[in-house]
Every structure is written in structure tokens, then in C-alpha cells.
Amino acid sequence: MAEITRVARRELAAFFGSPVAYIFIGTFLAVCLFVFFWVDAFFSRNIADARPLFEWMPVLLIFLCAALSMRLWSEERRAGTLETLLTLPVATPKLVLGKFLAAWALVAVALVLTLPMPITVALLGPLDWGPVIGAYLATLLLAAAYLSIGLFVSSRTDNPIVALIGSTLLCTLLYLIGSPALTNLAGHGSAEILRLIGSGARFESITRGVIDLRDLYYYLSIVGAFLALTVYSLERLRWAERGTNPRHHHRWTLVTALIVANLLAANLWMQGVTGARIDLTEGRLYTLSESTETYLDQLQEPLLIRGYFSAETHPLLTPLVPQLRDLLEEYQVAGKGKVRVEIVDPQQAPELEREAGEQYGIRPVAFQTASKYQAAVVNSYFDILVKYGDQFETLNFQDLIDLKVRGETDLDVRLRNPEYDLTRTIKKVLYGYQGGGDVFANITKPLHLKGFISPVDQLPDPLPALRQDLESVLGELQTQSPETFSFELQDPATGDGALAREIQEQYGFEPLVVSLLDPTPFYFYMVLEGGDQQIPIPLPESLERAGLSRAIEAGIKRFAPGVLRTVALYAPSAQPADPFGMGGPAPSDYGLLQQSLQEGFTVRETDLVSGQVPEEADLLMVLAPEDLDETQQFAIDQFLMQGGTVVLAASSFEIDLTGGSIAARKADTGLEGWLAHQGLALEPSMVLDPRNTPFPIPVQRDLGGFAVQEIQTLDYPYFPDVRGDGLALDNGIVSNLGQITMNWSTPIAIDAEKNAARSVVKLIQSSPEAWTSDAENMQPDFDAHGALGFPVGEDRGRKALAVLVEGRFSSPFAGQPSPLLSESAPDPADAETETDSDDPQEADAEQAPPVISGVIESSPESARLILIGSSSFLTDTAISLANEAMQSRYLKPVELVQNALEWSLEDRGLLALRGHGQFGRMLEPIAQQRRLFWESLNYVLAVGALALVYVLHRRLRARREQRYAEILDNGGHR
Predict the structure, then answer these.
(1) φ, ψ dihedrals at 528, nearest 5°
(2) How many other C-beta atoms can be found within 10 angstroms of the C-beta atom of residue 338?
(3) What is the distance between the alpha carbons of residues 230 and 214, in angstroms, rounded to a whole number?
(4) Which of 73-77, 205-209, 529-533, 703-707 has the lowest mean pLDDT?
């Protein structure tokens, strides 16, 4: 080892003793900085990662490593010093290793000097250092492979230029074999083999932050093979000097061939080693999470996951197929025999293609491709089927990929979050299958239903018959699962009224009445208890046995972890609009949100006009309420009083994007009084924040008296960009968002006195520099107000944009008759006349069931209210505008709602999984001046580091020369 070290030190001294090292390091840093800040436009990407630094590294290293290694042996041969080296008492392998390590050390020094760039990213945003460490390791391994090739070529010639060209050609060939330029010409099966051979695909695998033993061995095998060939090449030159010995030569040839063949062939054996890897990413993004394994452990039947991928597909989708296949194989391993994975090409299997189209609705998609010479259309499959029992769901390319526009012809296509998408789909089919069978299948604790119901003779029609139906339904459920389900019916009016007072204090249950003119009180309440959880069962609106059975089963399913939840959704109907002439949807259109919710929940739309939330609802979500009447308010209130969760997205303004301008008008939600009673208020203003997200804004430009309206992407204070300490990172609803833009938000006021006994969490807050404005004109005026376009208010400070309140609520309807009760009782004679018809079906249709209603005056501690001060940020318009501004698929508002629903319904598995696999966290908002500062700082640091290396080398050289001089002065003695 000492001899190898001495050779390496000699070569390093030779590098730094000439301009070679400084030219190499200077060129390397200059190209890296140029690519990082200009070619890949780091600040325009707005993503906190170091990917631009390493994206071009496989191509850059080809030329730099070839230039670095071209003189290592060819110069020795040309100058005639090779014979001297070969006659030294140093083995040839040690000479080769010494030169190799010297060149490799020079590359390592150059890489160390690039550290200011990832450090800059870490200062500007939440950088994940795992992929950065992996990228540096991959760069060192790739450089080692290229240098070993360069050493071999240099040993075969005495002309450095020939060595440079030969090394460049060999390294380029190794890179091109696995590059998209070649793999796009083959099917995904052949393309995968080419990628395994090529150096670039292995490099990308490690730069993800996953250190796979197969990738490490691939590079080490190339280094070992070409270093062995270099030793053999030099030994052949030694033979020429010493004469011939055929047996010795043949033995060397055979041993070298065996070494090279075994090193390279072992890559085939290593492909079966799939578990030897380390995931360095924060949160282990490329490793199946515990949440996924939890869902797979619930499987009782075989789960089929079948990937439909065409051999001929769009070139940008081809590299994603192996990634999905590897992920599906991990599902198969984690399923412990209960998950079957199949990868098929439907176009090669007509029966499977017909089955996919007829049974699962999977059909090919026409992708348009274009090359330098022609444009074409290819019909291909890129779908995944997940089937469990009789339930199945499909994922197509739109569900799986994330597209970012980097230029007019440059698209960045990646997998969005494949584990979350797959696990969410598995959860849906699993819960759908389990929910369709035995209602008690997944109940893990005894359930007890308490019915607080008056005797039959005290109940108005048709409740006596409904009570008999209730006893029948409860008896059937108890017979179905006697160990899990039990019930009891009690009359609260018996005795001294102690039970009536108890249920009034504990549940807020008040006596019911039929109408204001018939105030005879009675009780008809039900509560389902399991462990510490208590869920009131609402009286069905239809007052029929079927509705009663659905309501009770829905309550039972709330205790089961494996049942698909139901969300009652109130949303305004869409109105056609054309904002800015861009053809976007109307501001009241929530189609994207509804589609996303349907992927994980059963969504039941409701208008609340009946005064009741659907009985099977587990959660109520209200979007953009406007002028809600008392009946609709009562429906929301009573759902909360029953211990439910209400998610309310509302604002004091309605945004108008028509007419080519931005304006707002004040709008009443109808819930102002109800929110005030709960200690909350939507203030009559909107939040402006200097930390904001750019927005395509119509701007007037004056051309010599002629006004021209243009769409420009400018900073827009009405779009607060919230991240970091603006998010309640200790709460699961927002902890994994990273960033969110709250478009046109109303600040939320919190009454501390009324909420003293409740838990209040400010989920989302603006920056400390934010202010509010009640102006209805939201068109920026940059001439009058500078870069922000709006006057800065005096009320600067953090504004609450979303809050979570949990605990016991009181109803503002307490002590009042139910709004659902009519003010006049029907006359029996009139009723007989109205129902006297020859058509019994018509008579039944005209005879509506009576309204049975009371007021629950207070809620249990489990009630939750989530108030978001904006509804427009969830519209398709706002999301599409954010997509245009960021040139990527932006779904943070949808993720916020999904998080809120999953957290409220205590589906914490998917909630944790949504943050697992999130790539490319965003940078903090950076002004143009600060961008120039950071960019200039990196250039200065690079020049300073290069100068420091030069100074250190000069000092070391001076010390070494002084030492030699002292030795000479002592007569050659140390």
C-alpha cells in the first residue's frame, strides 16, 4: 500500500505542478455552475434539490476524465520513461492503481469544491441530503469507471490525442447504450436490458438516494475489468523488453480473460439480489412504508395487481415502466403470498386486451410523438389494475405521472407518488370488498346501542311502526353477532326524569315534537357506544325500515377500520365562465376536488335543504356557502352536535374573473351568526402577503396612448405562499404539505373566551408581513404602488387562514323549536280528502312522512370544526392558474382537503403515506436581487476555492523544496 501511495502522490504532484489540475478543476466548476444556474434554471424550477448539478454529470465526465487520463500512460511511452517504470521494483498492478487513485483524487477535489451549491439550496429550502450524498457517490463511481477506461486506452498508444479520442468514444458508447436516444427505439423489455448495461441509468438510480448493491457492483466491475486490462497491456510491453515465454504469456492472457469475464458476468447474478440496498432519502421515499404494509396485512383474499404496459409507448413513459415494475415487486414481497403481480403487454396478448377493455374499461391511449424527421401517433397502454374479490380499480398514466414543463419542447415526466396512488387504490378495493359483506367483519370491540325512545302509545305516527322496525333490526343484528353487538331501549321520561337530565347533559338530547301546534314531547334518540367512542345515530329522513337499517349500519361501520367512509359534500353548481379568455372553468367548479375525493371516499352530494345530512355520512364538507337559510344552517349545526366533523371552506368575498379583470364582491355565507356562536368569524377583508405565488395577471401596457392588455406572470399578494412556520407542523393535516398557496383568503378571527375549553389549532397562517384589505378591486397598479401593485396596510402581522377547533360545542338553536317543524298542524279531514284517490301509488306519493325533529343542544368532545378562510383556492380555475404559474401539476389544495378528511376520519395510514414519496420540495420565495446574490456568491466561492487550492499547493511545494535543500546541505543524509 505504501508503494501505491507514493505513486499516487507523485502523480498528484505532477498534476498540480502543471496547469493540468487547475484547468481541470476550473473547467469542471465553470460548467457545473453554468448548468446549475443557467441551463437548468435553478431558481425558475423553484424546487429545493441539487438535481441540476448532477443531471449533466455523465456527459461532462466523459470529456473531462478522458482529458485527465489521456497522458497517464501514453506520455510515459512517448517520453521513453515507461521502460524505467517497468524496471522499478514495483509490481505493475501497483503502478496502475497509483495512477488511477491520483486521477480519482483530483476528481474528488473538484467535487468537494461544488459543495457550496447544495449548501445554497439547503439555505433556501428544505433540501433532502440523501439524494445529494447518493449523487456525489454516483459521480465518484462513474468517474472511476471512465478513468479506468481512459487508463486502458492510454496504455495502448503513445499519442495522447489518440488516447483522448479513444477514451471519449468508449465512454460515450457505454453511456449511449442506456440513454433514451437508444432505448426509445426498443420495447420496454429490450430497453431495460440496455439501461442495465449503460452507465447513465445506473447513475440516475444512485442519484435518487438509493444505494443498491447491484449498482455499486456494476461500476466496480467496470473499474476492475479495465484496470485488469491495463495491467495486461503493460505486461505485454514488459514481455517485448524481456523476450518471449509463450507459456507465461498464455497464462497471463487466460487469467486476465477469466478475471474480466467473471467480473462482468457477475452482474447477471447480482440482478437477483433485490433486497441489498440502503434508502438514504428523508422519510425513506423509495421503501414501502409501514402504512402500506398495514393495509397488506389486512388482506384475507388474493390481491391481483396487473400492469398493462405496451412495448411501444411514448419515449417519456418508457423509463418509468421499470420503476413501476420494481415497486410492484416490492408489493408482492410485502404481501407474503397474498399479492400477485403480473406485467403484461396487451397488444401481444389479444385475450388479455379484450378482457381489459370489456371488464375493466382499460383501453389504449393515442400518444403523439415527434422526432427530428417525422411526427407519429402510437397507441399504447400505461395502466395498472388492482383487483380484490369482486372489487377493482384502475390507474392510468394521468393518475401515475407528474409533468413539469421546462421549456417549449422540454418536458420533465416523473412518477408522481406511485406508492401512495397504489396503496390508496388497494385501500379502496379492500374496504369496498369488506364493506359489502358482514358489517361486523372488522369490528374489534363490543358495540352497545342505547335507544332513548318513548313508549309506543306516546309516539306520533308513523313512529310506533318505526319503533317495531327498530326492535326487529336490532334483534337481527344481535342474532348475527351476539358477542359483538347488544342493545337496550329506555324511556327517558320514566321515574323522576334523571335519565332525561343525564342524556341532556351528556348528549344534548331534548324532547322531540311533531309540530308547533302539537307540542306533545317524546323521545326517539339512539347512541352507539364502543370503548370510549360514542356515536349518535340520526333518525332517517324517510322514517322507513330501510333508512333505519342504513343509519345503524353506517354507525357500526364507523367503528370498523376497514370500511370505505362516506363524505357528504355541499358545493355550489358550476357556472360557465371564461377567465381572461383562457377557456378555464368557472370559479365555482370543484370538479377536480370531487374527482379526487371519489378516489378514496364514497361521496354523497347534498344541498342540505331538507335540514338533515344524509344518515350514512361520516363527515360533512361545505364548500363556498352563500346565503344559507335557517334549515341549511340547522343541518350543519346538528351534524356537529351529533359529534361529527364539519369541514367548512368559505370566504367573505366572491371572486369575479370575467371581463378580463379581477374583482370581488362581498357575499354573505349565511353562517356568520352560527360561526360567531362557536367563537369564530370570517373577517370582512382579504389577506395580502409579500410572500406570495406568481399569478398570470392581465396588465395594461401603454403604447404611445394605445392601451394593450397582456397576461403576465407577476407576484400577486392575494396569493399567500405559506410554508415553514406558517404551517402547524405538529398536526397531521398540514405537516406533510411542505407548501400551499391560499388564493384570495379571508382572515379568521378566533374568540379566545368562547374557545377556552376547546382545542384550537391554527393550521395555516400567513407570514408576519401580511396585511388585510377590504377593497373589491383586485387589479394591481404597479405605477402607483410599486412592485407589489397594492397599498400596504397598517395591520401587518400573521393572519389565521385555516383553523381546527375540537371539543364540546353548543348549538345556537338551543332552547328554540326546530326550524324543521311546521307552524300549522294538518287537518285530519283534509288529509283524508287529499289521500282519497283511485290510484294508490299517487296517494302514497302525495302523503309525505311527517317531520320528526328536535334540537341537540350540545355536542360530545369528539366534535370537530375545520374552518378554511378560502373556497376559491379549491376551484379548478385556481388550481389551473397555479399549474400555469409553476409549469407543473400543482395539487396542494386537494391534498389539504384529503389530509383533513383522512385525519378527521382517523385514517392516519394514508395520511402518513401521502408525505411518503413526495419529491422536490419547493424553495422559499426569493426576490430577484437575492437570486443574483446567491448566484454570484457561488461563483466567487468557486474562484476562491480554486485559488486556495493553488496557494496550498504552492506552500506544500515550497516546504518540499526546502526539505530537499536541507537534505542536500547535509550531504544527502536526512
Answers:
(1) -105, 125
(2) 16
(3) 24
(4) 703-707
Strands 365-370 and 375-380, by their bridges, are antiparallel
Q: If DSSP codes are grouped into helix, strand and coil, which group holds residue 514?
A: coil
Which residue from 947, 38, 41, 890 is spatially nearest to 406, judged by alpha carbons?
Answer: 41
Give the span between the Cα atoms of 626 and 654, in whole angstroms.
Answer: 9
Neighbours of 86 (CB within 10 A): 17
Distance between CA 425 and CA 392 in Å, rounded?
9
What is the residue whose three cell numbers read 400551499?
740
Length of the chain, please? 974
Query: Which helix (H) or strand (E) segment is 806 a member of?
Result: strand 800-806
Nearest to 381 by CA among 349, 345, 416: 345
> In this structure, are strands 771-773 and 686-688 parallel, antiparallel, or unpaired?
antiparallel
Question: Torsion over CA of 724, 728, 730 and 735, rounded to 10 degrees?
Answer: -60
The candidate with the shortest Cα–Cα distance to 439, out of 488, 390, 474, is 474
Judge contact between 307 and 327, C-beta under 8 A: no
Cα→Cα distances 460→322, 495, 841, 845, 849, Å? 67, 22, 23, 20, 11
Mean per-residue pLDDT for 250-259?
Answer: 84
The string over 494-520, giving b where at least 16 C-beta atoms fall within 10 Å of a residue's C-beta and e elsewhere, is: eeeeebbeebbeebbbbbbbbbeeeee
- Residues 406-411, mean pLDDT to the nearest whole number: 56
- The answer, yes or no, to whether residue 920 has pLDDT greater than 60, is no
User: What 8-state DSSP symbol labels residue 824?
Assistant: S
Q: What is the residue type of 771? A: W
Q: Which amino acid is located at 800 in the chain?
A: A
* pLDDT tens digits, one per residue of 72-116: 888 877 877 776 777 777 788 888 898 899 899 989 988 888 888
Helix (H) or strand (E) segment spanning residue 833: helix 828-835
Contact 614, 566 (CB under 8 A): yes
And the C-alpha cell for 31? 460548467
892, three cell numbers: 396542494
Contacts of 255-260 with C-beta under 8 Å, sequence gap 24+, read 256/228, 256/229, 256/231, 256/232, 259/224, 259/225, 259/228, 260/225, 260/228, 260/229
**Whether the Cβ atoms of residue 206 and residue 141 lie closer than 8 Å to each other:** yes
Please, which residues bridge with residue 804 across strands?
Answer: 761, 866
- Tell me which residue of 145, 146, 144, 166 sits closest to 154, measured CA to CA: 166
Mean per-residue pLDDT for 144-151? 93
What residues have CB less than 8 Å from 506, skipping those under 6 apart? 860
Tell me the per-residue pLDDT of 848-866, one tens digit each, with 9 for 90 and over: 556 666 788 888 888 999 9
Provide CB contacts within 8 A for 951, sequence distance 6+: none
